[in-house]
Amino acid sequence: MPLRGAQRSQSGALHNLPANSSTYQRFQPKGHRVMTNETNTTEVAPGLMRIVAPIGERFIASYLFRGEEASLIVDTGFDSSAREVFIPALESLGVTPESLKYVVSTHCDFDHTGGNAAFREWSPNATFVAGEADRHQTESVEALIVERYGELACHGVDETEESKAGIRAATQLTRVDVGMRGEETFRLSEDWKVCLVHTPGHSYGSVSIWDPRSRAFVIGDAVLGATVPLANGEPAFPPTYRYLDDYLATVALVRKFAPALLLTSHYRVMDAEAATDFLDETTKFVDELQSSIDSQLAEGPQTLTSIINGAAPLFGPWDPTAWPYLGLPVYGHVERMQARGELEIDHSTTPPTVRSVAGVAS
Predict the structure, then answer these.
(1) Assigned domain for 94 exists
(2) Is residue 292, in this structure, part of any structural domain at all?
(3) CATH number at residue 93
(4) What is the pLDDT of residues 53-93, one digit of tens each?
(5) DSSP structural state of residue 357
(6) DSSP state for residue 133 in the 8-state scheme
């Protein structure tokens, strides 16, 4: 996800924003049933604590599984989140450095991994776990900036040097001890095990934690609805999924699990009904974005930026300075269409041009 407390210009450049900027707002789909307790630490199921840290006008939620034999925490936020909120919360709950056995990063984005080094300092014997496909970018902030956040630079969507400096300042990483691919289990008590599930789409290596005992699914950013929200429920910026087929497969997988509780990083706690609505909202967004891309390509060749600017007003509503974040999902759709032979990308132009292949329907 993009730098919290910053936003892009329509050209793709990022500019710092004051903490009270109205651009980063939060989405809560109409009709969703949610549990609205936003206190710092809440027990959402037996032995499962939700700990919330502010990030500007939004928040990051970490999840603590506390068993009799071991504790496991999911995501560490920024370096400041870990030091000022998450670690003090664990201490107030009586969790010791020795009892924290596992630190799981759902994916490589810095608002989920930036506190890893702080947790390594606090609990040096804990095992740090991430999806194998995200390992490199979970260990190296420079790889994250160049390979993930700078992927679309040739299309005019990139971070500014100021933004990159902010990412570096917020992020203190450490080695990943174990890279996982899914279906691994963690024993927390004699009668309690939780499972790691591969849930790609937002990133290649995105992983989630399934708790069969409570039927709670901790998914990080694996599913993102129709917008990324602020704490007040208003739209902030587009859902930043990247790999479309993987993303849709993950949505289908979450449906198959039919969680009683869907626990994300940036949305409120969802019960079973709210989770179903959220998944429906997710697939609806994907379908509507595809329709917008198809319509624009039918009019003639496009650049990534022109597709973004044509599609973004149909959703949100988002401030135009947040529109470039739509580049990630748009490029995911473009890649799938290219793989199907439905379009061509002309890299001889600056920026590259996208055009439909005549006679091929999406």
Answers:
(1) yes
(2) no
(3) 3.60.15.10
(4) 998 888 999 999 999 999 999 999 999 999 999 999 999 99
(5) P
(6) G
Residue 24: inside a domain: yes
- pTM, entire model: 0.89
Q: What is the domain range of residue 194? A: 6-284
106, 57 Cβ separation under 8 angstroms: no
Contacts of 88 (CB under 8 A, 6+ apart): none
Both tokens of residue 198? 């591969």
Asked, for residue 307, whether it belongs to a domain, the answer is no
> Across the strands, what pairs with 193?
187
Question: Cα 249 from chain centroid?
Answer: 16
CA nearest to 54, candidates 120, 111, 121, 126 = 111
Cβ-contact 111, 4 below 8 angstroms: yes
In the chain, the number of structural domains is 1
DSSP string, 264-292: ESSS-EEEHHHHHHHHHHHHHHHHHHHHH
Length of the chain: 362
pLDDT, tens digit (0-9, with 9 covering 90-100), for 139-192: 999 999 999 999 999 999 998 899 999 999 999 999 999 999 999 999 999 999
- Write down the pLDDT at residue 16: 29
The DSSP call for residue 177 is: S
Looking at every residue in the chain, the average pLDDT score rounds to 89
Average pLDDT on 98-109 reads 99
